[in-house]
Amino acid sequence: MRVYKIAILPGDGIGPEVTREAVNVLQVLSEIDSTFQYEATEFNWNSEFYLKHGRMMPEDGLDMLMDFDAILFGAIGDHRVPDPVTIWELILPIRKNFKQYVNFRPIKLLKGLESPLKQNDPIDFVIIRENSEGEYTNSGGTMFHAEAREMAVQNTVMTRQGVTQISEFAYQYAREHGLTKVTNATKSNAVIHAMTFWDRIVEEVADKNTDIKYEKYYIDALSAYFVQRPESFEVVLASNLFGDILSDLGSAIVGGLGIAPSGNINPSGEFPSMFEAVHGSAPDIAGKGIANPMAQIWSAALMLEHLGRKDLHDAVLAAIEEVLEEKKVLTPDIGGTASTKEVGKAIARKL
Amino acid sequence: MRVYKIAILPGDGIGPEVTREAVNVLQVLSEIDSTFQYEATEFNWNSEFYLKHGRMMPEDGLDMLMDFDAILFGAIGDHRVPDPVTIWELILPIRKNFKQYVNFRPIKLLKGLESPLKQNDPIDFVIIRENSEGEYTNSGGTMFHAEAREMAVQNTVMTRQGVTQISEFAYQYAREHGLTKVTNATKSNAVIHAMTFWDRIVEEVADKNTDIKYEKYYIDALSAYFVQRPESFEVVLASNLFGDILSDLGSAIVGGLGIAPSGNINPSGEFPSMFEAVHGSAPDIAGKGIANPMAQIWSAALMLEHLGRKDLHDAVLAAIEEVLEEKKVLTPDIGGTASTKEVGKAIARKL
Ligand SMILES: CC(C)[C@H](C(=O)O)[C@@H](O)C(=O)O
Ligand SMILES: CC(C)[C@H](C(=O)O)[C@@H](O)C(=O)O
């Protein structure tokens, strides 16, 4: 029997608090289902580690992670280390080096949850975000420090390979899940070089998949549609930055960041994929035990699905929905008074 | 008495339809208030013009506009001309050459309008969007056409002058309007070169204006907050692209693009400023006479305020609100059955 090797990176702030509950759910699953066994190894690569060692992970950190089947990531960042450091030395190197070029973010209004929108139609779509290039590059710089002519340049870089592979993933995902439409988030009317290129490559892939409907909106209009008619989307395909924005916005219309999960996926399986709540380390509520663990538990469920255990994913999601529907054990972000631990336990009990 | 010289660029699609109603409102104002006189000159620079002349405006188009006190712009784009052409050869050259470095966008839930959000607090803030540089540059390009290694690069360029002047405008606006807080929209955790520079310059200005509260959010989180707690914002300061996204999103939470106005402002007055609805030319409903003229009429009101006639601005906005509150003459986008013309007339009648 396969024993999944899982790397746990709890991180900073509420990261460890919510990750503990997610690992507890894995533990419970392995107890009730003997066909699911795992071995978790924790890595304390966080701001504390940085303050001690001057780096976010050991020099051979990526090599160490290579041995694992998947990574469960908490959240990173506290006030003692600049955000760009924690991010460009930990999250982004993992995403980029492990070719996790898909950032997968379901936007689904779970049973029992209330949307801040008046509209009542079910909301259930996914954002497929390019996760390896685009607006997130360290190419560029600043010049003429403190002079009147001081300036900064930032290079967005998009490649045929990068845009093709994410577009193909989006179409493949749509087909495998019986979905009928891919929506391209673009801004080719203004961000001429990068986004007209993006559209051209996306449309090359769309032209090979004419059984699935293709539509394209400018990111500004699309953001408005997320509020006005979120029920009309199935698969939203977006660049790195646009996907980042749309997924927080998407999470807001279905109950907030306390719920929103994500997977950073390397589709070939050559490298481990990484799963993390969309939310950050939330230093303002860290240590209070009130963070909602649902986003991280759902992220762990996405990990299980990725590892071939869709059955366990579905069981975990059903357990989360049961707890939501009962409305008895909820954290403050969704109107309850329960603690992180209590919610984690309630979900585990449902399993 | 001063006679304001106003250039009218109706543009494409619904642009001419809604602009006609806005000009009609100006006409009515000049009839009832003899201290307000204007002279309108129409320029048919649109897609039709492009198809005839191979350019979006005459070679000396910008010179021709220089004579005017302000520009009222409809909307541009139809399916016969690629969007980047209409935009990079007409809207953007005007914004950039006339140093309209402020894109001013009020987000206000008018009386009588329903928000798609369940929350009931008043929504009333402004987005101050950098309008001359940033993500909107034609610097960059593509390489290796059709090869496997094909790629595109897009340069975001931010300058000390550009970021300083928009930040100063935001603080000055806040102070002049008795507002207490400026919210900086950033992404300095990921878009390292440009956005850490942006933050640094914004914060230099913030440090000189400590009587006004400063806060900073990443654009992804901020987009979510627009849905979750829009009542908490007063002045939102954003880069060109982020301001573009936030203003469509903002318009969605207060009734949609049929209402949202904007001003492209050259604060020094050295060049004419330009006023336009946030919405586009909407080719899908063009010619049907059902476009909502309120956004364009409100834009004309912003123009009046810019020209020193805040009294007229307030009168027009009050007239729009009266029509909204009566709920009798509304276009389909906000739940009515009236035509563009009927709504325009109803507003004019209130004056
Ligand atoms: C037409 C387009 C280039 C423009 C922009 O992105 O600035 C529009 O969306 C706007 O907001 O005025
Ligand atoms: C932490 C940050 C760099 C990250 C991103 O922008 O990708 C986060 O917002 C996310 O969405 O995972």
TrEMBL record, chains A, B:
The cofactor named in the record is: Mn(2+); Mg(2+)
Protein family according to the UniProt entry: Belongs to the isocitrate and isopropylmalate dehydrogenases family.
Q: Known InterPro entries for this protein?
A: ICDH/IPMDH (IPR050501), IsoCit/isopropylmalate_DH_CS (IPR019818), IsoPropMal-DH-like_dom (IPR024084), TTC_DH (IPR011829)
* Listed name of the protein: D-malate dehydrogenase (decarboxylating)
MF (Gene Ontology):
D-malate dehydrogenase (decarboxylating) (NAD+) activity; magnesium ion binding; NAD binding
Q: What reaction does this enzyme carry out catalytically?
A: (R)-malate + NAD(+) = pyruvate + CO2 + NADH
Question: Which SMART domains does the entry link to?
Answer: Iso_dh
Q: What class of enzyme is it?
A: oxidoreductase
Tell me the Gene3D superfamilies matching this sequence: Isopropylmalate Dehydrogenase (3.40.718.10)
Q: What is its EC number?
A: 1.1.1.83
Gene name, per UniProt, is: ttuC
Record carries keyword Manganese:
yes
- List, for all copies, the residue spans of the domain called Isopropylmalate dehydrogenase-like: 5-347
Q: Which NCBIfam families match?
A: TTC (TIGR02089)
Origin organism of this chain? Lentibacillus populi
Q: Is NAD one of the keywords?
A: yes
Q: What does the UniProt keyword field contain? A: Manganese, Metal-binding, NAD, Oxidoreductase
**What's the domain of life for this entry?**
Bacteria
